[in-house]
Each structure stands twice: as C-alpha cells, then as structure tokens.
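ESCALATION

Customer reports they have been waiting on this structure for their group meeting. Please prioritize. Original submission:
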Amino acid sequence: MTGKLTVDTFGERREWTADELASLACGGRLRVSEVVADHPRATHATFSSRDGYRASIPLGVARRQGVLFLQADGSIRLRVEDGATLCWNVKDLGEVRLTVGAEPDSVPENPVH
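Update from on-call: job pushed to the front of the queue and completed.
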C-alpha cells in the first residue's frame, strides 16, 4: 500500500502510514474511532480527499458510524454507515481535521443523486 492519512487535531498532526492503518484493519476496514480521537473542543471532523472534496461530519457520528476501507490501489475510502447523506462518503481520503463547528462542504446541502 502507498496511501497515508493525516489527522489534524487543532494543529497537532498525526500521519498514519498505509502499514500502520493495515495493522489496525480487519479485512481491509477499520472504524474511524480507531484513528480519530474524541476531543473535548471538537464538534466536527472534516474529511478531505486528495482532489479537494470535503465533507464536514459531526464528530460523534463520524466516530460511531464511520468506516475506513483500505483499497487495493492504496487509497482510503470513508463510508458513513446510515449517514444523513451519501455525500459523507469520501473517496481517496487524505486528511481529517477536527474543528469547532462545521466547515463548508464541497457539495450542496441537498444534492441530486
């Protein structure tokens, strides 16, 4: 695998290598809560793809329902099981940033699917 994931917790950055993620994964998948810690100030986590796609998700929802899938090509895919919108599912994930309040998503609130 060649992918990596950066998690930014208010300026403290943790870079997860593909090997580290694979060691935590079971069958190529792992819960978001295994790599994104809870934080008393954070209300949301913004998940960004390598091409700039963004989805800002309430932190509790992301940690409870979010699953990371390690793809054969080395990329990482986020899926939020039973999420409020399919737009929370992010392909080619590269960064997670914890925030106070939601950040703007890169898609409209009610996109056509």
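Sent to customer with the following note: Strands lie at 4-9, 12-17, 29-31, 44-49, 54-58, 66-70, 76-80, 93-99.
Escalation resolved.
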